[in-house]
Amino acid sequence: MTMTDLAILYLVVGVACGVAVARRTDGPRRDALLAAAITVVLWPLWAPFVLLQPPQRSPGACRRAERPGGAPRAILPVEQRIDSSLAAALEAARHAGLAQLLPEDSARHIQEVAARVAGRLGELDQQLDGLRVEPDQAAGRLTIQPRGTSDRAMAAAQRRARSLERLQSLRDQDVRALDELAELCELLRAELTLARYGASEDLGEITSELWARLEGLSAIADPTL
Questions:
Q1: Number of Cβ within a 10 Å radius of residue 23
Q2: Does residue 99 carry a pLDDT above 70?
Q3: pTM of the entire structure?
Q4: How far is residue 107 CA from its own chain's centroid?
Q5: Crossing angle of helices 203-221/151-196, nearest 10°?
Q6: How far apart (Å, rounded) are the C-alpha atoms in residues 78 and 82?
Q7: Hey, where are the domains in the chain?
Q8: Of 154, 157, 214, nearest to 188 (Cα)?
Q9: Are 125 and 133 in contact (CB under 8 A)?
Q10: What is the spatial distance between Cα 136 and Cα 119, in angstroms, rounded to a whole number?
Q11: What does the alpha-carbon distance between residue 182 and residue 194 come to, in Å, rounded to a whole number?
Q12: 150 in the Ramachandran plot: left (φ > 0), alpha (ψ -120 to 50) or beta?
């Protein structure tokens, strides 16, 4: 297949995706045409995400979903960073005529994944607080066991120390994951703001990285998925 054939195939697929996106875009016809034109050019980056999203339920700012069972939980500062960045990104996307690139359902999905990871982080904190022993302290106790301590007791202490280290490692992983997600949301907000003034250069790359990171976070939040 020649480069010309590839270019024609790329354009045909892009036009098909653009038509599908235009039909799903609510609001003024201008917005639908703009979304379609952008999709024709950049369809490999976000057409799959846009077309696989369920139809938007209602307009308005994105809302954080309640936790399963309605149990209250304090919102972490990193979640507030994500919320504020997404709200600003949605507003910038609307002003730039790029609302289809960040549907409200997508913003809600990001919030829901962040909330699940934050919920797991809270559970890990509770477990570590309940044990009341830092991993390095637990490991240090292995060197000061009383004379005559049985091999079974020593083995149990070692297993306990390893468990504490693994819990701490999981907690650190969740903290890093939420921080990185917040940074990507802030970058998305900045690039959409730049796109509003026709100066964005990295929007496609940041969007792709955000969705890839979100997929990894979903696996962290619910390993059974």
A1: 9
A2: yes
A3: 0.60
A4: 9
A5: 150
A6: 6
A7: 1-52, 60-221
A8: 214
A9: no
A10: 25
A11: 18
A12: beta
